[in-house]
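Supplementary material to the annual report.
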Amino acid sequence: MQVSGGDLQRLRQLNSLSSLRALREATDPLTLTELAARTGLSRNSVIDVVTDLQERGWIAEVEPTMGGMGRPAKRYRFRADAGHVLGIDIGVHKVLAVITDLAGRTLSSGRVAVDRHTARPERLEAVWRAVEAALVASGLSAPDLWGVAIGSIGVVNREGLVTRVNDLPDWPGVDLIGHLGQRLSCPITVENDSKLAALAEQRLGVAAGVRDLVYLHAGRRPGAALILNGRLHHGFSGATGEVGLMEMTGWRTMAARLEDSPAARGTPPQEAAGLVFAAARAGDPGALAAIDTYAHHLALGTAAMVLTLDPELVVLGGGFSRSADVLLPALHRALEPHCLRVPDIRPSALGEECVALGAACLALDHVDEQFFSPDGSISRPAAPRRHA
Amino acid sequence: MQVSGGDLQRLRQLNSLSSLRALREATDPLTLTELAARTGLSRNSVIDVVTDLQERGWIAEVEPTMGGMGRPAKRYRFRADAGHVLGIDIGVHKVLAVITDLAGRTLSSGRVAVDRHTARPERLEAVWRAVEAALVASGLSAPDLWGVAIGSIGVVNREGLVTRVNDLPDWPGVDLIGHLGQRLSCPITVENDSKLAALAEQRLGVAAGVRDLVYLHAGRRPGAALILNGRLHHGFSGATGEVGLMEMTGWRTMAARLEDSPAARGTPPQEAAGLVFAAARAGDPGALAAIDTYAHHLALGTAAMVLTLDPELVVLGGGFSRSADVLLPALHRALEPHCLRVPDIRPSALGEECVALGAACLALDHVDEQFFSPDGSISRPAAPRRHA
DNA sequence: CCCATTTATTGTGGAGTCCATAGATAGTCA
DNA sequence: TGACTATCTATGGACTCCACAATAAATGGG
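Predicted assembly:
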């Protein structure tokens, strides 16, 4: 609840922003009268604001719709194509770059495969190749980007440094902002990948509009992230959702035990879990038991977070969420003995672009913040700045 | 980040509010020039705003300080005595009502002793007697109150209803807003007592200004509450910080086990814990071991919250926090094996008025919200309204 | 085809708020 | 007493919003 106040021009800016927001959040183009009603301004003032925004390229007039009574009104829409942001997902097995417009719609993407043995320089090079591919595919160039956010595995602190990673020995300490800042001249943010997946679900996925939620990354490397009061919860040092570190939850070993179950014995570990889920779907008692055991452990850590936070929703994401038809009921059953009220549980709606899309959402958030800050102006973010 | 905008009078209102906030947050009275610098407004505008605020009784002029160069400047201060709020703590053993000014400073209080066998009607009657006593002591009457908040034991939902209580069988379902609304004509809010204690610590106590913290209520009935992003975290149904419900933490029985330790065997349970802590302070090995066991269990639940949230600070409150000199180091040791980073732990600074003060803080928050809402005016809250 | 009805657009004047600037005022210091 | 400094006071200009009246463009009925 920040009170800003200021100048008459600041007032005009605030009114422009509230008009812009109204147009952006509306599903259909709005007439001047509708916009006046939504912003609470008089019609005259809305005309001033709208012509101004139109000249600056923020909104566009669309064909008036005929057929109603009276003189047809001009209609205006938000121009989501006025600017673009870049979201990057740096994972163990892939690097994915996505370019979206200001509404978060994907325009293009670039993908480069890597693996757990890829060294830091090669991984960074892969990042740049993915970005270039996405830029080429979109027809844009680097200076057209208004913001960039990067999702990385590991714990990311407030300065955007990766501080702790389990799987990639040479990844901690990498300065992604410094690296990408050499070629990109817009604000750059770094965040943990699970956190960005949670953000994507809250903005574009099954958790649209939910204020408090726990995101579970159920996969070979379990994790969790939190959206609290509608915002990503970063924590003091970035290490949130780490309940799996409590040995009693069994999170450290639960995925391996699932892959070791008789239904998948002997298959390569990357396919094992899928086989177990398939077997369970076919009614195999051993597979069902293995999944119940997995769900039991997943529920222990989840219960710790749910009892702490009492969220409205739990989103089941990660690779295993593809088998939500089997896993979700088991998780629900396993949570019941622990929770006062088992929250709604929904499987992730977004695919493997989840993290990159969440990164784009975070970049959009920062663009927004710049607009709405007291000294910001309604124009594209200008100065290259380091964000964390 | 709510964009408001509006007409010229709304702009004036915003500028008045930012001036008011600047004066309230300043430690000393400010001159017009200083105020202009802090608000970013021109001197002329500040004069307009300030004379207006003075006429409405929000600020007062103080004697100019001589001795400097140039013409002595008028100085203005926020009038914290312009309004008052009431905070009520309804506990098992006492009802405490506190009246504070707009700065959260206690003016008067009223206290009535009750016990676990007091039935609901008598407890509600005690609430009213405590309120009347506080009013009499302050020289105010009910219509002078701008806001009321009540801290109750048990889970409190968004509608302000008490939904779940362990110790008082006839307390769930009590409609405190309806009851007090019969005699008080200002907005009334109800919240869980531990949550309010946490709020008090964040506003007036050891956690001043900390954005993310976990409040531990270490006492005969353990509990926890969270401040996240500078605001009280209520949760979807009000049941946050309930990690103690996980049987593996041992929270349900840890206090009884402490009271049962040899150092206090045979003493009345209300004094037992104090005796154990005293014995530990004197070096008694059995007492030290009992405290280590207690700290171990307290740490299990705390670790679940800390790993989930990665807070900056843990505040140790509740009755046992009087023995923080013994308990805090034990808790720190017990947390270390579980946490990546053990947060700063500080003992509560506020005494047993903690909950009532937190209630006053919450009432002040609601008064503030009314000021800063787009359609609010800079005047005392008018209409009686139910808050939850 | 013309006209009443409905809704949107355009134009004018007034009120409120903020700002820049210049001159008057009230202290201190030599 | 007179220079100096910072504050107070007054005036005019610029900007933004609003209310109201007149004009314009569509529909639908006679």
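Confidence is low (pLDDT under 50) at residues 382-388 of chain B.
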